[in-house]
Amino acid sequence: MSKRGPFIVIEGLDRSGKSTQTALLLARFEASGIPAKLLKFPDRTTAIGQMIDSYLKSTSELDDRAIHLLFSANRWELVSTIEQLLAVGTAVICDRYAFSGIAFSASKGISYEWCRAPDVGLPAPDLSLFLDISPEAAKTRGGYGEERYEKEEMQRRVGEVFRRIGKEIDGGGREDGRWVNIDAGKEKEVVEGEVWALVEPLARGVEGPLRRLWTDKLTI
């Protein structure tokens, strides 16, 4: 059986360096001659993504549960694309994924289990890297505060939910991925090196079928 492409997700608080590190990781793949595709969630180019973009820029208002479901639908829009890319050996790198959706919505007081439910069955990353940075440090970075969720107390609550997700993904012998925390307060080049050291063993392909997130939570 030929190897499929690896599915890598980079998560983190706002201004933790996700966009920078996903771009650097893509460049590493390309320099190694390995086909790779970078996806960003939310994908603001789709019809659903445009609604999300308007909400994040505070130019429209939506119920907290409604926007959560739109974020989830935005991910499901691209499932077939992810599966097709991986099947032909292309690495898929995601800037944010389902874990962000849960973290931001649960931090607003919505049930963690309710937030997780719409994403049950999504493709599971082979590796999820969480760029961990304190809200205080993130505030010092350019552009902080331009979007709805970039408030210090909100980011603190989001970080707590991310840590819960990490324990859930990486604990108890689960089969839906591996979660690694990375100190994103370090120099950009240091973080880049740590990311590549974790990704490189998977870079040239992964054996076995694509797994699914939280299939043990299915109720039907």
From TrEMBL:
It comes from Asterophora parasitica. Pathway: Pyrimidine metabolism; dTTP biosynthesis. GO terms for cellular component: cytosol; nucleus. This is Thymidylate kinase. Residues 10-193 form the Thymidylate kinase-like domain. PROSITE patterns: THYMIDYLATE_KINASE (PS01331). Keywords: ATP-binding, Kinase, Nucleotide biosynthesis, Nucleotide-binding, Transferase. Belongs to the thymidylate kinase family. Its EC number is 2.7.4.9. GO terms for biological process: dTDP biosynthetic process; dTTP biosynthetic process; dUDP biosynthetic process. GO terms for molecular function: ATP binding; dTMP kinase activity; nucleoside diphosphate kinase activity. InterPro entries: P-loop_NTPase, Thymidylate_kin-like_dom, Thymidylate_kin_CS, Thymidylate_kinase.
